[in-house]
Design a protein that fits this description.
Rossmann fold, alpha/beta, homodimer, 11 helices, 3 domains, DNA-binding, elongated
DNA sequence: AATTTTTGTGCAATCGATTGTACTAAAAAT
DNA sequence: ATTTTTAGTACAATCGATTGCACAAAAATT
C-alpha cells in the first residue's frame, strides 16, 4: 500500500474506503506509528509554533497566563516559544525578530513598558503572521486582543474607597503610555469626579510601581506631614512598599490611611493589614488569547474582523480599606 | 551558484573558499535570507525542542526555573515544550508520551508527587531521548540531574532552631517517596540526633504540605494543648496555615512556638511574624539543567557519564525563629 | 611537460508527509 | 454489451536544507 493512501486514510480523506481506513488505522496502531511532525510541518510551511512575548515569566499574573495558554495550545498540537523582555524595548524588538525567523504561526505580545513605538510590530504584520495582544496592548494597532478592563477595576476600587469614607485619595500611577496604567488612572479619575472629589496634580504620583518606589514615596509623604485619606496604587508592589513604611512610622492602615493595590499578588492576602486589590484571572485570560489565536490560525477564512475580549477584574476587599469594622 | 555551495558557505565548511563564503554571507544578508528551521530539522531528524514536565508552572519555584531554562535554551535555538502534571501520575505519563511523539531532543522532568514507579520513563530511555531530572528526581534512575541539597537545608534550619533554644521540634513532612521530602526529613532527623534530642513518631506529621493541611494540623495541635517548642515544615504553605491558626488562637510566634518553612515563597517575607525559610534559587537551577541538557545534546560523544549538580539552599532567618530579640 | 595533489563546486539523493494528476477496477447507466 | 461514472489507489513532485560522491580547475610535485 502506498504512502499516499496511508496518508489519506489517516486523514480520513473521503476518497478512501472505510475498510481501508480502518485497516490502516489499526496497522498504524499496531506498529506504533507516529507521524513525523517535522516533515508535515515542512510540507505545510508551518511549524505549529506560537510565539509569546511578555515582560517577565515569573510574575504571578504572567506565569498564570502562560499556564492558561499551555492548557489550550498543548492539546491542540502547538508549542509555545516564550520570550522575556524584562520591560526593555530593544529586547522586545529582538524577540520579535527571533520569533519571525523561527517562522512561528502566530505571536502573542504583552508590551514592554520600555516600548513607545509600534514600528517593530509591522515586521510581523508584513510577514502576515497573526499578532495578538494580551493585557498590555498597543491601542493604535487594530489587532485581536485580550485585555483587562482596568478602567472598570480602578473605578470599582476607587468607588469602594469613597464609600468607605475616604475622600482625599491619592493614586500611584504607572507609565501613561501603557493602556493598563492609563486606564487605571482614568478609572480612578472617573470615580473621583463622579463623587465630586477634586484631584489635584500632586495627588497622582507617576512612575510608582515597585516596592522601592512605593517606599520612597511613603517616606516623602510622611515627612511632608500632609497625609491623604487613602492611597490607590496601580501596583500591589508599590502598595506593599507604602504599607511597610507606614507601619514603620506608626501610621495605621486603614484607620489613618486606606490602601488598595492592583493584581492580587499572593502576598497581599497575608500582609497585616491584608490589602484590598483586584484579581485579574491570568489563567483564564491566557486560555482566552490562546483560543483566539488558534481559531484564527485554523479558520481558512481571510481576516475579516478583529476580536477583542475584555475581562472584568474582581474587587477583593480586605482589611486595608475597611475603616469601620462592624 | 548551487544550493549545496551556499549551504556549505553558510556553515563555513572548510572546502569552501573564504571569498565565496563572504560573498554568500553578504548576499544572504542583502536578500534577507532566513534559513528554514523546519527543513533543516527534518533533515537532521531533530526538532530543537526540549520537553519540560513539571507539577505546576505557576509556582514560585517552578516559574523561576522555567525562566532560567528559557534564558539558556532560547539563545541556543531550542524551544521549550512545557507540560504540567498537577502532581498527577496519569498526567505525567501522558505528557511523557506527548513529548516522545513530538520527537523532542531531550526531556527535563520534575516528578509528580503521584508518581511511584519509573516504568513510564523507560519509554524515553528506550527511544534514546536524554532524560534529566530536576529538583524532584527518581533516585533509582541513573540520569543527569540538578537538585537541591534538601538534606543540608533541613539540617541547617533545624540546627538554627536548636541553637535558638527550641528543643522539642516537630516536623511537617511530605511524601517520603519523593527525594525532596525524604531529605528534608532526614536532614531534620540528623540535626536532632546530633543535638541528642529525641524525635518520637508523633513529632513527625506526614502529608502536611498545603495551607489547609497546615491549618487542620494546627487546630488539632492547639486542641491537644500539648504544644512543641517549634515546628519545621517542609513547605511554606503548611507553615502559613499553621501560623494563621496560631495567631487566631493567640499563640505567639516565635515566643511561644518557633516556626520555619521551606522554599522562600514570596509571602513568607510579609507575614507577621515573617517566616524563616530556605531559598532555592530556582532560576539558577533552571539554567543549570538547561545547560546540562544542551551540553549532552551537542556533544557527539556517547554518554559515558552522568552529571549531577546539587544546589545548597540558603537559610533565610526571619522573625519566626528569633526567640530573643537583642 | 606530465602527473599527482589539493581545492572548490555541483549533482542528486535524502529526511517524511502531503497532494494534484492519472490510472484501474468496479458499479451504474444506457 | 457497451459506455459512462465513480470509487479507490498509486505515481511523482514538493517543501528547503544537507551531504556523500564525483568532477573540474588550480596548484604542487616529479
Amino acid at each position: 500500500m502506498s504512502a499516499s493512501t496511508i496518508s489519506r486514510a489517516l486523514a480520513k480523506h473521503p476518497r478512501i474506503s472505510v475498510k481501508t481506513c480502518e485497516l490502516v488505522q489499526k496497522t498504524a496502531a499496531v506498529m506504533n506509528y507516529r507521524p513525523n511532525h517535522l516533515a508535515s510541518n515542512l510540507r505545510r510551511g508551518k511549524g505549529k509554533l506560537i510565539g509569546v512575548i511578555i515582560p517577565r515569566i515569573n510574575r504571578h499574573f504572567f506565569s498564570h497566563a502562560i499556564a492558561g495558554m499551555e492548557a489550550i495550545t498543548n492539546p491542540a498540537g502547538y508549542n509555545l516559544m516564550i520570550c522575556q523582555t524584562n520591560e526593555d524595548f530593544e529586547s522586545e524588538q529582538q524577540s520579535l525578530q527571533t520569533l519571525i525567523n523561527n517562522r512561528v504561526d502566530g505571536i502573542i505580545v504583552s508590551v514592554a513598558s520600555g516600548t513607545r513605538t509600534t514600528k517593530h510590530f509591522k515586521a510581523a504584520i508584513d510577514e502576515e503572521i497573526p499578532l495578538l495582544f494580551f493585557d498590555r496592548v498597543m491601542e493604535e494597532l487594530d489587532t485581536d486582543r485580550v485585555v483587562n478592563d482596568n478602567f472598570a477595576g480602578a473605578y470599582a476600587v476607587t468607588k469602594h474607597l469613597i464609600e468607605q469614607g475616604f475622600h482625599k485619595i491619592m493614586h500611584l500611577a504607572g507609565p501613561r503610555h501603557i493602556n493598563v496604567y492609563k486606564h487605571r488612572y482614568t478609572g480612578y479619575l472617573k470615580a473621583m469626579e463622579e463623587a465630586d472629589l477634586e484631584v489635584s496634580p500632586e495627588m497622582v504620583i507617576d512612575d510608582c510601581l515597585t516596592r522601592d518606589k512605593g517606599e520612597q514615596f511613603a517616606e516623602k509623604l510622611c515627612d511632608s506631614g500632609n497625609l491623604p485619606d487613602a492611597i490607590f496604587s496601580a501596583s500591589d508592589y508599590s502598595a506593599l512598599g507604602v504599607l511597610l513604611v507606614l507601619k514603620k512610622r506608626g501610621i495605621n492602615v486603614p484607620s489613618d490611611i486606606g490602601l488598595a493595590g492592583f493584581a492580587n499578588e499572593p502576598f497581599t492576602e497575608f500582609l497585616e493589614p491584608s490589602i484590598t486589590t483586584l484579581e485579574q484571572f491570568g489563567e483564564d485570560m491566557g486560555q482566552s488569547v490562546a483560543r483566539m489565536l488558534i481559531d484564527r490560525l485554523e479558520s481558512k477564512e481571510e481576516k475579516k474582523f478583529t476580536s477583542s475580549v475584555s475581562f472584568k477584574p474582581q474587587l477583593i476587599i480586605r482589611e486595608s480599606t475597611i475603616k469601620n469594622k462592624i
